[in-house]
Amino acid sequence: MALCQSIGAMPVNKKSLKIRNNYFKITEPSSLRPPYCTTRSLDDITLYWYDSDNEVIERRVPWFQSTFGTLLDATIDEYNFQQFQQKRFEEFRSYMNDTEGFQVLQLLDGCILYDDGSFDTLYSFHYNGEPFIRFDEKNGSWIADDPRAQVFADRYNQNKTQLNQTMNLQEIDCAQHINKLLSLGECMFTRTEQPVVTMTQTAITNSTYRLSCRAYGHYPKNISMMWYQDGEPVPENLVEIVTLPLPDITYLTWLSMNINMEDNNVYTCGVTHSSMTSPLMMRSHSRYFFTTVTPNNSASDYPFYYTTRSIDDITLYWYDSDTGVVERRVPWFRSVHNGLLEATITEHNFQISLSKVLESFRNHVNDTEGFHVLQLLEGCILHDNQTIYTLLSYRYDGNPLMSFNSEKSNWTAEDPRAQYLADINNMNQTVTEDIKNSLVNQCILHIAELLSLGNCTFNRKEEPVVVVTKTPITNTVYKMHCRAYGHYPKNISMIWNKNGEPVPDSMMEKVTLPLPDITYLTRLTMNITSTDDNVYTCRVTHSSLMSPLMARLSEDLSDLSNSSSDNNARGSGISIGGIIGICLAIILLMVFIVFGFVCWANSRRR
């Protein structure tokens, strides 16, 4: 049981203020805690502390002044109240025959003052953590929450003088105390402290890691934090948010969620607070090497070895065992080595090494027949606040085999059959430290260099072309497709509207795929019945657009915002039939040109 803390939540309006006193009596002489303690707070700010060991009020904020005069007067009052509550507690224990063992009596005495001047009060006892007896200020009487407390409620209600004193004391104290404390601590309550936001990533299983977004040191307490997946808000039921007070009278808010390690979506943490002039969006950049090797004697038509390097979703280069050359996929890519020739030599040497690892493991587990594949994922994720998450992991036939832990600088066998490989790799501590340094120290340098080289690519904006189609699935069901072609960056918001109202997310399916020209295709689909005569509109919002685009099946693209956007929308909204017609015309034209060229070439040869 948490002692000397709040024993229950008070109903708080967004614009209310509360003052709260917590009184505790502990009956275990050997306890390291004081037998009696009390705190006083305004909102979540502790004003003072008193306990039976020191018997002195200790201020927790320098501006606090007691309503009883001096702190000495307040200390005497607390001491007298301590004696009074001790007698009440002994009375409760004796009546219930709880004179042995550990028991605790708690009193929550407080009030909430609302903006309109109204207030609610609370005067409630808890015995061993359970509601026992409370004073109801609306009826002006005591109510027993525990049947064993009924005898005490009846006795207290018979004393009308004491009932009136309790009622008047609470009504008078609430507004007076809160207004005085607000005046004394005006600078503290009216200030705003901007949070420091960080993002981290922690592996919790072999296939899952936890994304955490933390906002440190914000005041006031209210803060809005949200995870976005490729620009779309993550449902609240998938995230966990916790807010904790800090010793410097600010707050820490922690937003976390679990995702799969193979999840390639872009996650962004959005933070909004009254101390900020605009929302803060925290995101990350990733850099990965993905390598696959199969037995060289495989009958597959594919290369037995290939590797790619990427930053975010952009493939930088490709290397395979058939060509034996590093091929750039973006013109601005430059190897961290002196040139592409050196990078090719490095890849060739790594090809030989990884093939030996595969051969060794196949022989060890007696998998020398059939098709088998060894895959290696190596890379890092760099967050905006410069925190790093690293990944170096092997898989055999698609299952986790062995991974490297950067914090411990060692290899861990995720498949018991790979323990011998982990032991061999862990024998040389110098090598494992070099791997750690390569993963951690080079991450920031490489990503910064690549972002600088590809500045024009990463900072550009490409408007999507939006097309709506409908295809039959069964005799009674159609699938509505809304496709946004060629947009960059990846984040895009798409939603179906039914007669102007948003369709629930659970009824839609969204997929985003990379295109060869370093743009994206996003498709939003939903099923409708063939008899459905409602009007469905696809709304598309993207950073490249001045205003949202609205696409319908009847008119493929029409911006409902303004006339200037209408021209842009009509220019982009070519129907599927029109696209097919244009493509057929181009194909026929090419056939005629090629056929004419062949005839001309033959005549020349003759």
Question: SSE layout and pairings?
Answer:
Layout (H helix, E strand, L loop, with lengths): L16 E10 L9 E7 L2 E7 L6 E2 L11 H25 L8 E10 L5 E9 L2 E7 L4 E4 L5 H9 L1 H25 L1 H5 L5 E8 L4 E11 L5 E6 L2 E2 L6 E6 L5 E10 L6 E6 L7 E3 L1 E10 L11 E7 L2 E7 L6 E2 L11 H25 L9 E10 L4 E9 L2 E7 L4 E4 L5 H8 L2 H25 L1 H5 L5 E8 L4 E11 L5 E6 L2 E2 L6 E6 L5 E10 L6 E6 L7 E4 L10 H10 L3 H30 L1
Antiparallel strand pairs: 1-2, 1-5, 2-3, 3-4, 5-6, 6-7, 7-8, 9-10, 10-14, 11-12, 11-15, 13-14, 15-16, 17-18, 17-21, 18-19, 19-20, 21-22, 22-23, 23-24, 25-26, 26-30, 27-28, 27-31, 29-30, 31-32
Task: Give a description of the structure.
With 606 residues, the chain is α+β, with helices and mostly antiparallel strands. The protein has four domains: 17-189, MHC class I-like antigen recognition-like (Murine Class I Major Histocompatibility Complex, H2-DB, Chain A, domain 1), CATH 3.30.500.10; 196-282, Immunoglobulins (Immunoglobulin-like), CATH 2.60.40.10; 286-457, MHC class I-like antigen recognition-like (Murine Class I Major Histocompatibility Complex, H2-DB, Chain A, domain 1, 2-Layer Sandwich), CATH 3.30.500; 465-579, Sandwich (Immunoglobulin-like). The protein is 28% helix and 36% strand. It is built from ten helices and 32 strands. The strands form six sheets. Strands 4-3-2-1-5-6-7-8 form an eight-stranded antiparallel sheet. Strand 13 (240-245) and strand 14 form a beta hairpin. The longest helix has 30 residues, at 576-605. The radius of gyration is 35 Å and the shape is elongated. Residues 1-23, 555-577 and 591-606 have low confidence and may be disordered.
